[in-house]
Amino acid sequence: MTKLFLACMTLLLLLPNPAPALVSEGRPGVPYFDHVLFLQSKVVQDDKVVAVSLAFADPRKETDLCRNSIDVFGGMEKFRDIPVRSWVMVDYELQSILVQDGFVGDADVSHVTTCPDAETCLELSEQRQSDPDIRQSRANKPRSETTSASSVESIEQRLDTGRKLVRAARCRGCHSIEGFGASHAPSLTWKRFKYEEGWLQDYLGNSYRMRPAMAELMMPNFTSTNAKPHLQSEEVKLVAIYLTNAATASAPNDRYQYEPWQDYDCYQCHTRLYREKPLVFKPTPMSDDLKSAAKNNTTLQTCLSCHPMGDLNTKQVVSSDNPNRLASDLLLAFEKLTLNYLAAFLENPAYLEPQTRMPNLALSEEQIREILDYARSIKAAIDAGDLKPVHTPYWMEKRSPSDRMEQ
Length: 407
Description:
The chain is α+β, with helices and mostly antiparallel strands. Helices cover 36% and strands 14% of the residues. Residues 9-26, 248-255 and 400-407 have low confidence and may be disordered.
């Protein structure tokens, strides 16, 4: 078990322990090969594998050796015929990491080999890793473009500063972040890289309406000179970095978990300001080809029963207690979400966003592919300049003292 202990400790040292409950910037999306893991648990429901958890040690024998574990998301069916409490050698891409005493991650598995014991797996792993042909093929495998080389210190500093700015802006007065906060607006707690590169920073600097059925509340513009705090462009970037990397499973450290968000009056103030200056949602004009493709996409039509999409499918305003009020315009959603995240979310919404109101539709792989293909066509049309999503910025802000005196 010495080799397994060293592998476990190496991974712990590579992760940013000083920033608890945060996702590491430098690891998710990176492929791993021939990792020796222990099949800790497996759940099968209705003849479908719905949960798989892998540990870095056999908890029956090495309880305190290593607290690292991985939840399998993509590739769960590969474990169907493997008994629980088996040793396995796994190829996977790690998609998110929650750093705590050890780390908890979720991964997409591409290959699994079962072994009679850990030592056999370790020997087989060493043989494969020393094979020059295998090493060359793996060296040529594309790496995720979302990862970046960063020092532990720089990651911790950026995330901690982003956290402070989020608290200063009282974001939890409307949003749940890292598992706690109000639920007036969509939760900002998720796993994996959710948004296309640069989207969140751009949105925070110039927010616009995405939910036609939600008409009592809008995201304020924190770059306004009247906003408190008034965020500079570099500060907006740090907030975006923090929100992109904030994880879900537990509350943050003691400096933040007692934030008195219940006492904030954000919702009452924002709804009052919105009534004074409402914003009419403007749907994006879509081409006849995109509309025809949407109408012929049976699975997408199911989505449109709740979601609006451009000028093809518009929705009326609903009451604040209607769950569909948070249903975003699908065209704007396809613009902002990565395809990797969209695919995983469609498969199991609550796993990626524990507080989501999106039900699990039990879509088949073929149905998910149908939606992804259409989302890909939307992104292609945007990139080509053939489709121009309508973003109507909202400049809701508190009035300055001088404005109040004039009134």
